Amino acid sequence: METDSADTEVYISVDIETAGPNPNDYSLLTIGACTITEPPEMFYVEIQPVNSKFVPEALAISRLSMERLEKRGLAPKAAMAQFDEWARAQAHEDQKPVFVAFNAAFDWMFVNDYFHRYLGRNPFGHTALDIKSLYMGLTGVRWEETAMRYVGPRYLGDQQLTHHALRDAMDQAQIFRKVLDEAQLRGKASP
User: Fold this and answer.
1) Would the pTM count as exceeding 0.70?
2) Which side of the chain, N or C, has fewer Cβ within a 10 Å radius?
3) Class of domain 9-189
4) Cα gap 122→145, rounded to integer Å
5) 21: pLDDT confidence band, cut at 50, 70 and 90?
6) SS3 state at 131
């Protein structure tokens, strides 16, 4: 994969698991992240819930336990400090880490909120790159056809998302690399 921005940007695939649909009411429970490069540098953290609110379906999908995370997870400030340090370490002095996610709006909302709430800053700045939008632009499909049930088979084969934040971040990184490669091939084929 070649990119013109390789010298100034470091793409970091991020996936999260939460206790519900928004950071104002529900906790960020896990963060998984990896660089897009091969072999990837990886990060994973489990976070103590900030309250006891949860949507049963969210915990059923992730198979996370609020009680276990309360005992074994890191305090949110410590977790975000570790993620901040890791993300910054992936970029050289003249590079910027770029947040990449599959449905970035959801993951970004929680990560950005927690960074600002607990550290007062976000190493990714105020932007996120959405893989679904990139795929839509590349292929010309409708938005509903950017769901993982369509994109996954094309780039991951029969592999399914696990709803484990690190594993899913790694799968998203694979999708992102392949979408970028496909875009570059199309760009080279254009007159």
Assistant:
1) yes
2) C
3) alpha beta
4) 31
5) very high
6) helix
